[in-house]
């Protein structure tokens, strides 16, 4: 009897630990802090060892009516504003184990009052669920993450790696870019990440807004190109902020994705692909190109190949160094 009871206890403990470990793959958390007049207040975001911060939702708010004004988190009836993505820079938090963000104050348009608190909802993603694109690996998951080597720290130069994704039951794959920050020089993309299936191809470089979702076919290829650079370029003319990339992939609930990753041959974007999409480089380039494009349209000029300028810049950047 004693052995049977001990064995049952052992199985129950093992089952519970397994469930806890699964739940800890991605823990949802929330933190809030009030704005303090005359002094700096901040929120402390913490995930801990072998965990990565993923910011999900941020908002400013203020209590309306009899609510406790010292409550630094949203409650029913509060006046809130979720459109504050441009107010904060979360790049130091995303992918890190912990970070601090100072609380700012904005005017809330809906109630014409100043915000009283900042609230942040975030996940703590286990590094065990994040696949390194450059390490030879094969996994089957319903959902998971892919990152560049070393993320969220700087990645190595002269790397060409890829992950091939394929669903088992024919479901479509959805990706979400959580973070992307790659090297550039003179508004040209030196390093880039490419995603393609049979129908379309997206090439991303520089900085990308988080949580942009895209649906793909049953097969998807994720390719990362980090060009070889000279010491002179690294120390002087190349952008220093280069965390790399972090993306999430998901299959339908009744399906799984087989992911095969590792080093790959050097590849180039497909010029003939009609669905080729490039990131716009930065605000200065964006505004100047928009002005030029509008001007050309007024003159009756053909602007159908407008996006291809990014491809020319992209392919010439490797040979410049």
**What is the oligomer described by this structure?**
single chain
What are the secondary-structure elements, in order, as H or E? HEEEEEEEEEEEEEEEEEEEHEEEHH
Distance between the termini: 74 Å
The strand count comes to 22
Structural class: alpha+beta
Radius of gyration: 23 Å
What portion of residues is helical? 10-25%
Shape: elongated
Give the uncertain stretches in residue-range form: 1-23, 233-240, 280-321
Count of alpha and pi helical runs: 4
How are strands sequenced across the largest beta sheet? 10-21-12-19-16-17-22
Mean residue pLDDT: 78
- What is the beta-strand fraction? 35-45%
> Main β-sheet, in a few words?
7 strands, mixed
Set out the fold topology:
Blueprint: H1 2-23, E1 26-34, E2 42-46, E3 51-62, E4 79-81, E5 98-102, E6 107-108, E7 113-114, E8 117-126, E9 130-132, E10 137-141, E11 143-147, E12 159-167, E13 174-181, E14 184-185, E15 188-189, E16 192-196, E17 201-204, E18 212-215, E19 219-226, H2 231-237, E20 244-250, E21 257-263, E22 276-278, H3 283-298, H4 308-320
Parallel strand pairs: 9-11, 17-22
Antiparallel strand pairs: 1-8, 2-5, 3-4, 3-8, 6-7, 10-21, 11-20, 12-19, 12-21, 13-18, 13-20, 14-15, 16-17, 16-19
């Amino acid at each position: 009897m004693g052995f049977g009871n001990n064995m049952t206890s052992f199985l129950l403990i093992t089952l519970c630990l397994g469930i806890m470990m699964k739940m800890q793959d991605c823990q949802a958390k929330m933190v809030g802090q009030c704005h303090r007049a005359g002094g700096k207040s901040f929120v402390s975001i913490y995930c801990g060892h072998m965990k990565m911060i993923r910011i999900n939702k941020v908002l400013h708010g203020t209590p309306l009516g009899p609510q406790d004004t010292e409550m630094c988190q949203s409650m029913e009836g509060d006046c809130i504003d979720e459109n504050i993505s441009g107010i904060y820079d979360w790049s130091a938090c995303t992918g890190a184990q912990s970070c601090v963000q100072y609380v700012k104050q904005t005017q809330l348009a809906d109630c014409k009052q100043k915000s009283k608190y900042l609230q942040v909802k975030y996940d703590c993603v286990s590094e065990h669920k994040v696949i390194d694109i450059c390490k030879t690996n094969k996994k089957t998951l319903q959902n998971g993450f892919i990152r560049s080597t070393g993320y969220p720290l700087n990645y190595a130069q002269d790397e060409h790696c890829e992950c091939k994704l394929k669903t088992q039951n024919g479901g479509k794959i959805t990706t979400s870019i959580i973070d992307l920050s790659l090297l550039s020089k003179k508004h040209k993309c030196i390093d880039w990440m490419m995603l393609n299936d049979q129908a379309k191809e997206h090439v991303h470089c520089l900085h990308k807004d988080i949580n942009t979702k895209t649906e793909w076919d049953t097969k998807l290829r994720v390719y990362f190109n980090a060009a070889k650079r000279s010491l002179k370029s690294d120390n002087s003319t190349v952008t220093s902020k280069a965390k790399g990339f972090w993306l999430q992939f998901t299959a339908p609930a009744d399906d799984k994705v087989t992911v095969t990753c590792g080093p790959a041959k050097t590849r180039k974007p497909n010029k003939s692909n009609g669905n080729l999409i490039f990131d716009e480089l930065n605000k200065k380039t964006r505004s100047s190109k928009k002005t030029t494009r509008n001007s050309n349209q007024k003159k009756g000029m053909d602007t159908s190949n407008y996006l291809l300028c990014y491809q020319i810049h992209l392919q010439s950047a490797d040979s410049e160094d």
